[in-house]
Specification:
The complex is a heterodimer of chains A (144) and B (699). Chain A contains 2 helices and 4 strands. Chain A is α+β, with helices and mostly antiparallel strands and 144 residues long. Chain A has one domain. Chain A has a 4-stranded antiparallel sheet with strand order 1-2-3-4. The mean pLDDT of chain A is 79. Chain B has 3 domains: 166 residues, no CATH class; 309 residues, no CATH class; 168 residues, no CATH class. Chain B contains 11 helices and 36 strands. In chain B, strands 5, 9, 16, 22, 23, 24, 25, 26, 27, 28, 29, 31 and 33 form a 13-stranded parallel sheet that branches. In chain B, strands 10, 11, 12, 13, 17, 18 and 19 form a 7-stranded mixed sheet that branches. In chain B, strands 1, 2, 3, 4, 35 and 36 form a 6-stranded antiparallel sheet that branches. The two termini of chain B are 64 Å apart. The chains are: A alpha+beta (144), B alpha/beta (699). Chains A and B meet through helix 1 and strand 4 of A and helix 2 and helix 4 of B.
Chain lengths: 144, 699
């Protein structure tokens, strides 16, 4: 009977080993989970930016009006364009879109427009920490 | 050993803890690595997209900049445009030529500057090439222009962002061709059917002795030589006159083709405002008119002209003397120029120079077509006219009487002015051998009493030599004029020298250097064919056209070849209603209207390197509704030029026919010499057109 069962010492040592090993493991899991959430957020921000950018640059050049457009202006009927076309923006309210359209003028004619789309998004879900994603493109006036 | 057995061993729990811990540790490391790689992978995707947009920015800005630099086509004449045009017009091979230099040396660094707005690591690099250019207008039977090519503008753009790189390569169709409308650009006037109605309803007009219009339709005046491109380009009249000395000057001037049945091109005096036209004057001094005398060949004269004839001459009331005379005969071609004192209609027929029969036939009319060589008096028109066109001239028969006796000869020589006996014409039924021969001033020939029967035994002999109107193919009259200009002595009628062969709708050759542009029988349809080949854009209605191609100032910036379908047959009014007149053309091109009538209210080219053509195949009406100048080529094989305002056209007018009745107000057509393919000035009308859309792109 002497050798049977677990001694308190053994249990204590085992728990210590488990704690020492599990702590970084759990921390790693937590960090991985956060990274996954960040990846998801950035990817969604990137997709939101692309969605708006692609729909904007596919409009006829002359329809695009220069100016800064906030999230609300963009979602409420595409005020940045001289058109009734509504844009299909499929992302959550957490993703704050804004857009800037700038005319590039040469010889009194608008040759190009510079379109910048910015997405402000939470670093992770339910996080208060915000991050910006930005893409820019210059489009050409094919009417010239 | 079973688990139960193990449980009995000391240290078992520690072992289990170590194993579980190790597994968890390995799993967590694997998970971390996986998540990190996923994160990195996502960034590669995102960065790649940004790099893609950078590359796309490179493509977009490059296309726009190429358009701007080559002046596509607002400022043709820019350095880059000239450089690129030089490549197209003078390069032996157009394959794989890098044209980065037309974007400027600093172009890629400018792009880098833009990309730094995105990120420090971002960059864009662009290379532009011309590839696979092939000639497109290769048939000399329609139009052959070795400089007209199409191929690809290839732009390679590489965008880089945080280590991610995207390469986009696009091909855009590029066309290079001349905006001049093919073979018709060589013609000032080309009419498919001059005699649509009746020969006498067309081209006829009354004018007085000064060439001024008295009634009826107004003249269509045609200048075939170069005239200043007023108000754009000042010209020098001395240069124009200098050309007159060249015997082949007709090659460099606008041609005229009057198709249909026989067309009479009566040539009339234009000593007034209309200038001098087709007159047979010695041009040694343009301000002194000298009718041209053509000797009648001896073999054409009756026998009685070969030996002296003794005739009684009344020296005085008391003295009658038989005197020998010798007779010679010549023609004086004076056209319709009249020197009588009558200033009304038919002034030129005073004195029965023409028989009543001839007068009834021809009337006191000359042509509505006045072909000008120059507005100055005394200069001939040097125009090539093709088609069954006949010129009508008044031919004065001149009987020269030379007395054999010195005494009588002296009396004759002392006459001032010298006796010129221009013979009258008489109706056939009035002829008999006992008639006196009198000149058109009713003077008896030579002073002596002369019975006609002494010279002409039959009416036919007389008819051959008497005054009348003669008609001859235009080309013969042209040759005659050339003889006059060359101051050829001993001219006989008709002329000996043939400058041009008889040209009756025959084959024409239009060439320059080694390029044969056209060989064949010119037809308006050929110009239409070549225009259709060049079409780059189609719009539905005239309103769509104006919306697309008028700029904010109401000026036309076409720079294209456009079809207007116009199935509703709306009238195509140039400029559109509500726009300032005339229409200012900042960028020329070709408009092909499929259906509907055309109204012209004035067109002005902003630059001498621009040209505008309006073409239609429709059986329609073209009307000039303003007296303003229309700087345009009209190519309309089935259209009738309707009556409207008196008009001025600077270019080529090619149509089916011209409406000609009393409502026709006439006008002036000035040939635009710069558009002549045989001249180097033709090259300035080449345009380089880049397609609006990519043909394909890839990454």
């Amino acid at each position: 009977m002497k050798n049977k069962g677990l001694s308190l010492v053994e249990i204590t040592i085992s728990m210590a080993i488990m704690i020492i090993v599990m702590l970084p493991a759990f921390l790693t899991f937590s960090s991985g989970n956060q990274n996954i959430q960040m990846t998801e957020s950035e990817f969604r921000a990137h997709s939101a930016a692309l969605e708006l950018m692609e729909q904007t640059i596919s409009l006829p050049f002359d329809m695009l009006k220069a100016g800064f457009y906030s999230e609300e202006e963009i979602k409420n009927g595409a005020k940045f364009a001289d058109t009734d076309a509504m844009y299909h923006l499929s992302f959550d309210d957490d993703y704050k879109l804004s857009m800037n359209i700038e005319d590039i003028i040469k010889n009194n004619r608008i040759y190009f427009k510079k379109v910048s789309v910015t997405v402000k998004y939470p670093l992770t879900k339910n996080s208060n920490q915000m991050k910006n994603f930005n893409i820019k493109v210059i489009i050409n006036n094919d009417n010239i | 050993m079973t688990l139960k057995q193990c449980n009995h061993n000391r240290g078992f729990t520690i072992m289990i803890a170590l194993i579980i811990g190790t597994v968890l540790l390995v799993l967590s490391v694997v998970l971390y690595t996986f998540v990190s790689r996923q994160y990195t992978g996502m960034h590669i995707i995102v960065n790649g997209e940004i790099a893609h947009f950078l590359a796309e920015t490179g493509i977009n800005t490059t296309i726009g900049t190429i358009r701007e630099r080559i002046g596509n086509n607002l400022n043709s004449g820019t350095k880059a445009f000239e450089k690129l045009k030089d490549i197209f017009l003078n390069s032996k091979s157009l394959d794989n030529i890098c044209i980065n230099d037309i974007l400027g040396d600093s172009w890629n660094s400018e792009l880098k500057k833009f990309s730094s707005e995105v990120d420090k690591t971002a960059s864009i690099e662009v290379n532009v090439y011309l590839k696979d250019f092939k000639p497109i207008e290769t048939n000399p039977g329609v139009w052959c222009d070795s400089k007209a090519v199409n191929g690809w503008l290839v732009i390679e753009s590489v965008g880089e962002y945080k280590g991610s790189e995207r390469k986009i390569k696009i091909k855009r169709a590029m066309n290079v061709f001349n905006m001049v409308p093919g073979v018709m650009s060589k013609f000032t006037l080309y009419l498919n059917n001059c005699t649509k109605k009746n020969e006498n309803d067309y081209n006829l007009i009354r004018n007085d002795y000064k060439g001024m219009i008295t009634d009826g339709p107004q003249p269509l005046i045609i200048y075939n030589h170069a005239t200043p491109e007023y108000p754009v380009e000042p010209g020098n009249i001395a240069d124009i006159l200098r050309e007159e000395k060249e015997s082949d000057v007709w090659k460099h001037r606008g041609w005229i083709w009057l198709k249909g049945n026989k067309t009479r091109l009566n040539l009339c005096s234009g000593a007034g405002d209309l200038g001098e036209i087709f007159h047979f004057y010695d041009v040694s001094n343009p301000n002194v008119f000298t009718p041209v005398r053509f000797a009648t060949p001896v073999q054409s004269l009756p026998d009685s002209f070969f030996k002296p004839i003794t005739l009684p001459w009344d020296k005085s009331n008391e003295s009658v003397k038989n005197t020998p005379y010798r007779f010679w005969h010549s023609f004086i071609l004076d056209s319709f120029h009249d020197r009588s004192k009558r200033m009304q209609n038919e002034a030129m027929y005073e004195g029965d120079v023409l028989s009543a029969k001839e007068r009834n036939y021809y009337g006191a009319k000359s042509s509505v077509l006045h072909l000008f060589g120059d507005a100055r008096q005394g200069y001939q028109s040097r125009t090539r006219v093709i088609g069954p066109v006949y010129s009508a001239f008044v031919r004065f028969a001149n009987l020269e009487v030379k007395p054999e006796e010195a005494e009588v000869k002296e009396i004759f020589e002392n006459q001032d002015p010298k006796p010129i006996y221009l013979l009258r014409s008489i109706p056939e039924e009035s002829y008999n051998n006992s008639l006196d021969i009198k000149d058109f001033m009713w003077r008896r020939v030579g002073g002596p009493l002369l019975k006609i029967g002494m010279l002409f035994k039959r009416y036919e002999e007389y008819a051959n030599l008497m005054s009348c109107i003669v008609e001859m193919p235009y080309v013969e009259s042209y040759n005659t004029m050339q003889d006059v200009y060359d101051k050829k002595v001993n001219r006989t009628f008709p002329t000996i020298k043939k400058v041009l062969n008889m040209d009756n709708e025959g084959e024409s050759l239009i060439s320059r250097d080694n390029n044969v542009f056209y060989k064949g029988k010119p037809a308006i349809e050929d110009s239409i064919k070549i225009i259709r080949q060049r079409v780059q854009d189609v719009v539905t209605r005239p309103a769509d056209f104006w919306k697309k191609y008028l700029n904010e100032n109401g000026e036309l910036e076409l720079n294209n070849v456009v079809v207007i379908e116009n199935t509703a047959r709306e009238e195509f009014i140039i400029p559109p209603v509500g726009s300032p007149q005339p229409l200012v053309v900042k960028g020329g091109g070709i408009i092909l209207l499929e259906k509907g009538n055309i109204s012209l209210r004035g067109i002005s080219l902003a630059d001498t390197s621009e040209i505008l053509t309006v073409a239609t195949e429709d059986d329609c009406r073209i009307r000039f509704e303003s007296t303003m100048t229309n700087m345009v080529d009209i190519i309309a094989p089935n259209a009738e030029i309707d009556y409207g305002s008196k008009f001025e056209l600077f270019g080529s007018l090619c149509a089916k026919t011209i409406y000609a009745d009393h409502r026709f107000q006439g006008g002036v057509i000035r040939y635009r010499a710069a558009q002549d393919p045989t001249k180097s000035s033709y090259d300035k009308f080449y345009k380089i057109l880049i397609a609006k859309k990519d043909s394909y792109w890839n990454e």
